[in-house]
Write a structure and sequence with these properties.
Blueprint: H1 2-32, H2 38-72, H3 88-92, E1 105-107, E2 121-126, E3 131-134, E4 147-148, E5 155-156, E6 161-164, E7 172-174, E8 179-186, E9 192-199, H4 218-228, E10 235-237, E11 241-242, E12 251-255, H5 266-270, H6 274-287, E13 292-297, H7 306-309, E14 315-320, H8 328-336, E15 344-347, H9 349-360, E16 367-373, E17 381-386, H10 391-394, E18 404-408, E19 415-417, E20 429-434, H11 486-490, H12 497-505, H13 509-514, H14 522-531, H15 538-552
Parallel strand pairs: 1-14, 2-17, 12-13, 12-15, 13-14, 16-20
Antiparallel strand pairs: 3-9, 4-6, 5-8, 6-7, 8-9, 10-11, 10-15, 16-17, 18-19, 18-20
Helix pairs in contact: 1-2, 6-9, 14-15
Length: 553
């Protein structure tokens, strides 16, 4: 019935519009031909105006009734336009790829893509890495001195417990590989920095007991994940910490694409792991009282992997926009924002695969596809290894020179590493950059070398697909924290970054909460830090604010 009314109203709208336009044209022609006097012309104009007002009123009332009927029939009026009037987005909105037809698409207008040379490509090859480490500092919220249950010289299997948090002893952290515990490295105040394992050739696994998802309760599932090490894969917002097993999250979010510079292609990552990914979704669906959301890439030329688009037990939302459209925090904000008192969980694609493999393979399989990227490499490529791989071994015999900086993660939010250090637990990217210790004379005044920038000083906007070779030079020093509109140009969230950062600096807890602190993690403000004219360490400031609020309870 709704569809019939919709068609009839559209036809009526067209006929009345045609009649009104014909009347105006006829009147204009008569006036130009001198066939009526001025008073007659004025009368007809007033009658035409009255007719138009009446016509608009009738159509508007009918349009409202049509919307009410559509809603009462259970039709999603946000997704389907049943109005006789076109929406502004239909007239002037951006185009979206054909593969998103019939799906929810969120178009983000703020953001900025940093296109760097040296993206990984080609098929995935096995990496020749023998040394791995688990780093307790990667698990935010953990006490700095966890309870270590292994000793140097012990032989461990993949999936065997290495340590647990003294504050939350139920959450176990396990070895990604089998081999010998070579070193338990300590840092300041005797905190545990790394537990280093030299892998053997066989990579033996702890055999896990079978768990029946159909018949097991949620409480039993939580206990199973705690014991097997799977719980460490799940992170919680607010605060971006390891999830609290005593909380049932409102929703769970997974971003299936990454828009950061030189980030790995998730279609490559998930290839051949569809069964484990789907089982991971099924597990997560049992852990939340709400929905599992998959954020899909709606801005690429090619459609996302069918493993993502055909996934069940999840609601799919496409996002089209520049970086940071791939950040899970941005997707949460535009799908179901975090309000005071809300708790949501997040995972990356590879964490979902590892979680699913616990059930499909009955083992803790910490296999990772890692993008080795950067212009300082002979061959940027994808490699297959395990979580916590040694950085130096990942890039061995692939560096074009030795004057470089290794980064675990992307250039915006990653961490600098030495060659004897290790990939962070949740990272699946190694970025190699030229060391920035050669300064340009008057570089700020005479910018002769092309570089990624949002400033119109450089004509980058004329060449949107240009790739840049960059170094680590910041091209400036810390300055006064001045007001500018730079953050708003690249921040696709309804968060006022500068007032928030200033409230953190003065420890104003009420303003921090009101200005959206709970929605953010470091990666969400990394692009703001890149464009900051004051060179402020926004990610560090944000983490200080998050820690302060978490400590306050």
């Amino acid at each position: 019935m709704v569809f019939n009314i919709h068609i009839r109203m559209k036809n009526l709208h067209i006929k009345l519009s045609f009649l009104f336009i014909s009347l105006c044209v006829a009147n204009s022609a008569m006036a130009q031909g001198g066939l009526m006097e001025g008073s007659q012309w004025l009368t007809l104009v007033l009658l035409g105006a009255a007719a138009f007002i009446a016509f608009f009123f009738i159509v508007q009332v009918a349009d409202n009734f049509l919307a009410i009927e559509a809603k009462s029939s259970g039709i999603d009026t946000e997704k389907n336009n049943f109005s006789v009037f076109p929406r502004m987005g239909e007239l002037f909105g951006p185009s979206v790829p054909d593969y998103t037809e019939g799906s929810k698409v969120k178009v983000l207008r703020q953001g900025h893509d940093i296109i760097l040379a040296g993206a990984a490509s080609g098929s995935v090859k096995d990496a020749n890495v023998r040394t791995f480490a688990v780093q307790p500092k990667n698990f935010i919220g953990m006490s700095p001195i966890p309870k270590v249950v292994v000793e140097v010289g012990d032989n461990v299997k993949a999936g065997e417990v290495l340590f647990y948090d003294k504050k939350k002893p139920d959450i176990k952290y396990v070895s990604p590989v089998s081999g010998e515990v070579a070193e338990i490295k300590r840092a300041e105040k005797r905190s545990i920095a790394e537990i280093i394992i030299i892998a053997d050739q066989k990579n033996e696994y702890v055999k896990l007991s079978e768990f029946n998802l159909l018949h097991g309760t949620r409480e039993e599932l939580v206990d199973y994940l705690l014991a097997t090490g799977g719980w460490s894969l799940i992170r919680q917002r607010p605060y971006d910490i390891v999830a609290d097993p005593t909380i049932t999250p409102r929703d769970i979010f997974i971003s299936t694409f990454d828009t950061a510079p030189l980030a790995p292609d998730s279609n490559v990552v998930v290839a051949g792991r569809g069964a484990a990914f789907q089982r991971g979704i099924d597990v997560l669906n049992r852990l939340t009282s709400g929905k599992v959301y998959l954020g899909l890439n709606g801005g690429a030329k090619d459609a996302p992997s069918s493993i993502f688009t055909n996934a069940t037990n999840a609601e799919k939302v496409y996002f089209k926009g520049k970086h940071p459209a791939g950040n899970v925090g941005v997707q949460i904000h535009h799908t179901a924002a975090i309000n005071a008192g809300d708790t949501v969980w997040t995972l990356g694609v590879q964490e979902v695969i590892t979680l699913g493999a616990i059930f499909t393979e009955e083992r803790f399989n910490a296999e990772r596809v890692v993008a080795i990227a950067g212009a300082e490499l002979h061959e940027p490529r994808y490699v297959r290894t395990y979580a916590g791989a040694n950085m130096g071994e990942l890039v061995k015999d692939n560096l074009s020179n030795d004057h470089i900086r290794l980064v675990s993660g992307d250039v915006l939010s990653g961490k600098t590493k030495e060659s004897n250090q290790f990939l962070n637990y949740y990272d699946d990217q190694v970025t190699v950059l030229a060391e920035g210790d050669e300064y340009e004379m008057f570089g700020w005044l005479l910018p002769l070398k092309a570089r990624p920038s949002v400033s119109r000083t450089f004509p980058n906007f004329l060449f949107p697909d240009q790739e840049f070779e960059v170094d680590t030079n910041t091209h400036g020093e810390k300055r006064a924290f001045v007001m500018s509109s730079d953050y708003e140009r690249v921040m696709p969230m309804d968060v006022h970054v500068q007032p928030l950062m200033k409230s953190i600096l003065v420890n104003d807890l009420e303003r921090m909460e009101g200005l959206g602190l709970y929605e953010l993690s470091e990666e969400d403000v990394a692009l703001c830090e890149f464009v900051c004219t004051s060179k402020m360490p926004l990610q560090k400031i944000l983490r200080e604010g998050l820690n302060t609020m978490r400590e306050q309870g």
